[in-house]
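Hey, I was hoping to borrow your eyes for a little while. For a while now I've been wondering how a particular protein folds. The fold is given in discrete form, as structure tokens running alongside the sequence. Could you read through the record and tell me how the tokens relate to the sequence? Take your time with it, there's no hurry, and the full record follows here:
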Amino acid sequence: MNLHRKGRAALVFALVVVVAMAFRVSWNALRDIAGAIGADGTAATLYPFVVDGLMALALIATLVLSGKDRVFALRVLAAYTIASLVLNSVHGLVPELHGRSVDWARLADWDPANWALVLLATSLPVGSIYFSSDLVAKVLHHRPAPIENAEESTNTERNRSRSDLAVSTPEPITPNVTALPRPVAVGFIKSTIPAKPLPSIELTPAVPIGSRAVAAESTRPRGATGRVPDAARTPRPKRTPDELLDEARKVTADWPDTRLTAEGIRREVRTSPANARTLRDTLRAERGLQAG
């Protein structure tokens, strides 16, 4: 554990050294660029902190944040790294920027390129204010996720402790047999008094159980359980199609069109499904003619 901490501390120290040396190398270029776009001596001295300082802040934010916030910090780091690379390249390509006596110099010979470079150099301080404040706010409001490995290890230890316990086996249950007392031989003095005779116990003869009374069979004739013959049935009156149609018209006179269904007509008129569908179609056709 101690070696692990020392290794991490050495890694962080090496990172700080590399960043400090890279910042010093980029210092002159960014300072001369700031002077070329119109910054005074103090502003030109502080300009490298705006670009490279935000890069260091974004690097720290990527180590702390996670998820979408980490992606945002990486994008800010990449954007300012590219901007610093462009400005350092311009400083190397324009020799006029190397002399401190020059108060104003062009960053490029071509006017559109010069305007783009000036816009880039002047927008970096404004972007640094926005991105640095946003990154700091994200870091301050960041809540680290709970360590899942610790929970899993705890559950594993619990399961092991439970499995390592000896399984308690119940003791065999022995039948509770009451032992009869063993006869103890005791010597008695013979008594001269004659023993009183015990009365003899007469056994009562068992009375045979009589047979149960069985209910007598009924002499009433049973009803017919088979199918009722057609001659014994009451014939139902058969209605003609016109009678069915007249009855359906009366029943459905005040019905709305949505209620005019074959099932509803079948229940009210008491007819077959086929007749109900025929009546439904006929009534809908009559209503369509009346509406037209």
Observations:
- The chain has eight helices and no strands.
- The mean pLDDT is 76.
